[in-house]
Amino acid sequence: MDLYLLIAFIPAALALNLTPGADMMFCLGQGLRSGTRPAVAASAGISTGAMMHVALAGVGLGALVATVPWLFDVIRWVGVAYLLWLAIGALRASSADQSKVKPLTAAKAFRQGFIVNLSNPKVILFVLAFVPQFVDPAQGNVLLQFLSLGAIIAFGGFIVNGLVGAFSGGMGRVLTGSPKFQRGIGYVTAAIFAGLAARLAIMEKA
After folding, report:
1. Residues 166, 24: contact at Cβ < 8 Å?
2. Is the distance from CB of 146 to CB of 55 less than 8 angstroms?
3. How far apart are the C-alpha atoms of 13 and 124, rounded to whole Å?
4. pTM across the whole model
5. For residue 87, pLDDT beyond 70
6. Domain boundaries of the chain, sorted by first residue
7. d(CA 113, CA 139)
8. CB atoms within 10 A of CB 125
9. At what angle do helices 142-175 and 36-58 cross, to 10 degrees?
10. Could you tell me the sign of the dihedral formed by the alpha carbons of 138, 9, 66, 72, in that order?
């Protein structure tokens, strides 16, 4: 990779990672609901999903999503349905006896983060618009450059979103002694997931 392009890419990628967005809010909600470890696992799942988007964009599938409206909508509505399902699950957990609620495992949190990121078609379109600006075909394999730049974005996102999730997980632990606070956390988490679903539902391709 061209060194000057890489030097320009890293601060741009960091700025993107620090910008509050759906991934950050998802990790925030997971931290409040389930604690630090599941929140960090969710961040890892999101970063893995981001790498999948980068790979798909690199092999040209991003262009297909950009040009076939119904494919974009199918992926988007799958994401909406999944987020609403998570919101309903959070509401049910908040109204149940907390002593009988099973804590969310790190593996399940990872899977949820992965699916949430992968079912957001806007990500692959963003990758398709952003990453090629820093790819130089003269430097060699284009797909390898895509994956290398995507790894930088994914790693930065994992750190930032993981820290947000860890912070909210710490807050959640402080409040777990009160059943009222536990129910409140469930409502807040459900509201975050439902808000993300609404955001994805009204999203436009362009």
Report:
1. no
2. yes
3. 15
4. 0.79
5. yes
6. 24-201
7. 34
8. 19
9. 160
10. positive
